[in-house]
Amino acid sequence: MNPIRSEIGLPPVATIEDVYLAASVVIAYTAEPFEYPRSDWPAKLRLVGPGLWEPRADTPPWLEELRQPLVLVTCSTLFQNDRRLAEVACEALGGAPFEVVVTTADVDSTDLQTAPNVRIERFLPHAPLLERAACVVCHAGMGITQKSLAHSVPVVAVPFGRDQPEVARRVEVAGAGIRLPARKLTSDRLLPAVHRAIELRPGAERVASAFAAAGGATAAADALDEITGLGASAPIPTTTRS
């Protein structure tokens, strides 16, 4: 990075933190206690909680018919080689006292074993499901993990790669769910992990309250207003084309 910075007249940086903290304000879409609590956050860093917007979607009609606790199992929308998550979930939770919805996304659902209490879909809007869910089993992606916790739903986080081991660790430290590494993912481990995660709902509720208090998109917009001088009453800039 420094050779490029030198070419355009910028001073060198020693660490990646120098890049982030060079900004006038840093908006982080997370918040304590999901983010590790610390006392030395720079003043310019604003923890605003997760971005939770998703397109409005109708509640699936069959969702109202479910009578047992709902467990949502969801794979990554990008290739993560996490088909095993769906396979083990179908095996472990089939016949268990839950209604199970598995969203496979990027994963090929061909030949997945099903049971009367297991429903397999490629894509479904998550918000209506999370409003009913007792637990989410996921690949520990930052998006689905924070969205689940924002709905007060505890998580069984099964990380496969990228930043997911760290996300799963934060779930564990926050007391909002269970971390189950992919190499230890078996049906005899997953079912007890789901039961234990459901018991940790108070931890998920604590995270949800903190996320809501952080302010979300409104807090992010307020932070931008502070550094631009533009408030709600400021005129909206327009662009004139010639």
Structural class: alpha/beta
How would you sum up the global shape? globular
How many domains, in number, for the residues?
2
Spatial strand sequence of the major β-sheet? 5-4-3-6-7-8
Gyration radius, to the nearest Å?
A: 21 Å
Largest sheet composition = 6 strands, parallel
Give me the secondary-structure topology:
Blueprint: H1 2-7, H2 16-20, E1 26-28, E2 45-47, E3 70-74, H3 83-93, E4 99-103, E5 118-121, H4 126-130, E6 133-138, H5 142-150, E7 155-157, H6 164-173, E8 177-179, H7 187-199, H8 201-214, H9 216-228
Parallel strand pairs: 1-2, 3-4, 3-6, 4-5, 6-7, 7-8
Your description of this structure?
- It is a single chain.
- The protein is globular.
- Helix content is 36%, strand content 13%.
- Helix 3 (83-93) crosses helix 7 (187-199).
- The chain has helices at 2-7, 16-20, 83-93, 126-130, 142-150, 164-173, 187-199, 201-214, 216-228, and strands at residues 26-28, 45-47, 70-74, 99-103, 118-121, 133-138, 155-157, 177-179.
- The model is unreliable at 236-242 (pLDDT under 50).
- It is α/β, with parallel strands linked by helices.
- The protein folds into 2 domains: 2-51 and 212-228, no CATH class; 66-208, Glycogen Phosphorylase B (Rossmann fold, 3-Layer(aba) Sandwich), CATH 3.40.50.
- Strand 7 (155-157), helix 6 and strand 8 form a beta-alpha-beta unit.
